[in-house]
Amino acid sequence: MRAYRFAAMAATLLALLATGIHAVYVAPSGQFNATENVSFNWTAGTINITSNYTNLVIYVDNSSTSIAPTYFTTSDYPTGSYAGLTSDAGVRCFGAAGSVGTKFYIINSTGSYENTTRAMNTSQYTVFSLYAHPECPPGKYYGNFSVKNVTNSSDYLSVTATVNVPISTSNTIDGNKTGYFKGSITSAGYHSYYLWTNATTNVTSVAINLTGLTGDVDLFILDSQGRLLNKSLSTGTTNESMDPVRLPSTADAWEIRIGNATSSYTGYLHYSTLNSSTSALNFGVLGPNQTSSTSTYSLSNLASFPVSNVSQSVELYKVHEWKGISTAGNFQIVVPAFAQKVSVRIE
User: Fold this and answer.
1) Does residue 320 register a pLDDT over 90?
2) Is the pLDDT of residue 336 over 90?
């Protein structure tokens, strides 16, 4: 039941994070309005500024930015943990001793890296785009920055920001088609990580597992519509591991969700470069005098490095359905001796 509860919540969450929260926030002087909360994932966040005064100049004070990770501590990702986490990147992502944390790229409406508006008159507005540093470790970041009146720095708004940095080749996905993320769930709830399905090239599926668990967490993966694609519900502190999920032909943003208990964890993504000539085998229908049927397919490796220890597993199953029944009754099926599991679902 936990899987279905998580899946039902996903569509609302993704819609919220993709669009952000755009409440109107009025400066103490009443001379300008700005977006109160900025929340975004893999796209840019936006802050809308509207003037209520004549000849007003506003700037986004990036020096006051204080955006810090919420899923992990800086000790989880020391300098050099992955290729993109250089000492300079570490300062951008975590801040040096005594400094503030992550700073945004701030781009004005003309596409220039600029954080000051033109002189605006009453009812004029402008939009700034905010971009997180993609080389920072994946996960959720939270904090605030200031929007100020140039001529009166005490007249400012403190804007809340929530940013989700996706798992990508800019951070932990390496040339061997593996990636990772880590953190600790310290209170009720769950952690969400995001990735583009085309984050790396020449791959066909991705498998995800969790290790280093200290609690009974569960693992889910959902698409951008909130549909549950796969899950792992091991008990206790047993590692969570899910079978590979085939990547779609068109790019999509997927969510990896971890929850249901407090726990530390390290997650791994393992991309497959094996490609099959078909996504499904059709053996057709056996005639009365037939004992077998043959269907063929071919495998190819899309990567420039060899793939070893390739094996296959076979799962044979049969589906029985009873539809449109509104009264109680008994339902019987014949279960062969070699069957290992019977699954029943009522909808």
Assistant:
1) no
2) no
Cα 239 from chain centre: 20
Helix H or strand E encompassing 39: strand 37-40
CA distances to 6, 54, 186, 266 from 218, in Å: 10, 55, 15, 13
Separation of alpha carbons 333 and 324, rounded Å: 18
**Model pTM greater than 0.85?**
no
CB neighbour list of residue 335: distance below 8 Å, 6 or more residues apart: 342
260/264 Cα distance (integer angstroms): 12
Residues in the chain: 347
Indicate the helix (H) or strand (E) that contains 215.
none
pLDDT, tens digit, 9 for 90 and up, residues 34-56? 887 888 776 788 889 999 999 99
Q: CA-CA distance, 263 to 237, in Å (whole number)?
A: 9
Q: Each residue of 249-266: pLDDT tens digit?
A: 899 999 999 999 999 999
Give alpha helix (H) positions in the chain.
2-19, 87-94
Question: 217 and 260 in contact (C-beta within 8 Å)?
Answer: yes
Residue carrying the six token digits 């796969």? 230
Distance CA 308, CA 265 (A): 28
Residue whose pair of structure tokens reads 């991705």 in the numeric block = 206
Q: Dig out the tokens for 96 from the structure.
A: 């040096």
User: Comparing 10-19, 82-91, 150-159, which segment has the lowest mean pLDDT?
Assistant: 10-19
Check: CB of residue 166 under 8 Å from CB of residue 140: no
Domains defined for the chain, CATH in brackets: 2-165 (2.60.40), 178-273 (2.60.120.380)
Question: Rounded CA gap, 243 and 230, in Å?
Answer: 8
